């Protein structure tokens, strides 16, 4: 079964059809830049552009970088605040000519669902935390394979700041941190999350997971097993398609 997945990020919006038996894209993903400011109309137009690139007309799953209840946006830390209160599924469906069913969920939850089904968390029990490191820090918490939605652990306090303002990959780039400097910040963040949740496994995703060998060996004093996401930056797309199929 193929379903379309779209992953809305702070810097890019990417999507592709997904083979839900294999948990992989059926074609190379198409990506456009996230409009600035990232308003509902601007982002919805970009989602429609990505879907139209493939001539897709069936169900569409879409991730959003914030809390989503039902299909209503509740927080918007890394996109325009005008998203708050918007029925994202209805807006995007309208931009797709009102025909295909649209499912919207938190971006890290989507990535986590994909990793737990097809990737590094497959078959794992106990508490597993998937963290997506990018413009911000997204989180997905699982207990015995069951998702606790919308945890948003990137907004925990770290050194007097929101954690994602200290340890996201955007911060690494903006401050030109070395891998060692950034890994130290990530280590402090992981130790804090571990103190609160005592997970058996951390899965680190986002685009930086492609370079895991540059920073994972530098992280110490974390008891939980620490692994990179296997689906890397495609996890959100795959998880979005999974959610659309389940809906």
Question: Could you explain the architecture of this structure?
Answer:
With 247 residues, the protein is α/β, with parallel strands linked by helices. The chain is 32% helix and 26% strand. The strands form four sheets. Strands 1, 2, 3, 4, 5 and 8 form a six-stranded mixed sheet that branches. A five-stranded mixed sheet has the order 11-10-9-14-15, covered by helices on one side. A hairpin with a 2-residue loop joins strand 10 and strand 11. Helix 1 packs across helix 2 and helix 3 (107-118) crosses helix 8 (235-246). The radius of gyration is 17 Å and the shape is globular. The two termini are 14 Å apart.
Order of helices and strands: EEEEHEEEHEHEEEEEHHHEHEH
Overall pLDDT confidence:
97
Q: What would you call the structural class?
A: alpha/beta
Low-confidence stretches: none
Strand content: 25-35%
In total, the number of strands is 15
- Using the CA coordinates, give the radius of gyration: 17 Å
Q: Number of helix segments?
A: 8
Distance from N terminus to C terminus (CA atoms, Å) equals 14 Å
Q: What share of the residues lie within helices?
A: 25-40%
Question: What best-fitting shape do the alpha-carbon axes yield?
Answer: globular
Biggest β-sheet description: 6 strands, mixed
How are the elements arranged and paired?
Blueprint: E1 2-8, E2 12-19, E3 24-25, E4 30-33, H1 40-53, E5 60-64, E6 68-69, E7 72-73, H2 88-95, E8 102-106, H3 107-118, E9 127-133, E10 137-143, E11 146-148, E12 157-158, E13 161-162, H4 164-167, H5 169-174, H6 179-197, E14 201-205, H7 212-215, E15 225-228, H8 235-246
Parallel strand pairs: 1-5, 5-8, 9-14, 14-15
Antiparallel strand pairs: 1-2, 2-3, 2-4, 6-7, 9-10, 10-11, 12-13
């Amino acid at each position: 079964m193929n379903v379309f997945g779209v992953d809305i990020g702070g810097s890019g919006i990417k999507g592709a059809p997904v083979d839900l038996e294999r948990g992989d894209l059926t074609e190379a993903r198409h990506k456009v830049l996230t409009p600035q400011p990232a308003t509902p109309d601007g982002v919805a137009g970009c989602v429609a552009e990505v879907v139209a690139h493939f001539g897709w007309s069936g169900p569409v799953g879409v991730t959003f970088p914030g809390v989503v209840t039902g299909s209503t946006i509740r927080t918007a830390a890394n996109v325009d605040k005008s998203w708050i209160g918007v029925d994202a599924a209805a807006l995007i469906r309208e931009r797709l000519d009102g025909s295909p069913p649209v499912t919207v969920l938190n971006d890290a939850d989507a990535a986590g669902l994909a990793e737990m089904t097809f990737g590094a968390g497959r078959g794992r029990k106990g508490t597993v935390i998937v963290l997506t490191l990018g413009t911000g820090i997204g989180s997905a918490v699982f207990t015995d394979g069951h998702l606790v939605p919308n945890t948003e652990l990137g907004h925990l306090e770290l050194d007097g700041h929101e954690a994602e303002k200290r340890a996201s990959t955007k911060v690494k780039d903006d401050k030109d941190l070395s891998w060692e400097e950034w890994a130290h910040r990530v280590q402090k963040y992981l130790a804090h999350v571990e103190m609160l949740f005592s997970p058996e496994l951390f899965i680190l995703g986002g685009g930086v997971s492609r370079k895991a060998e540059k920073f994972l060996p530098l992280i110490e004093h974390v008891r939980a097993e620490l692994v990179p996401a296997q689906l890397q930056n495609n996890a959100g797309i795959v998880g979005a398609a999974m959610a659309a199929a389940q809906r």
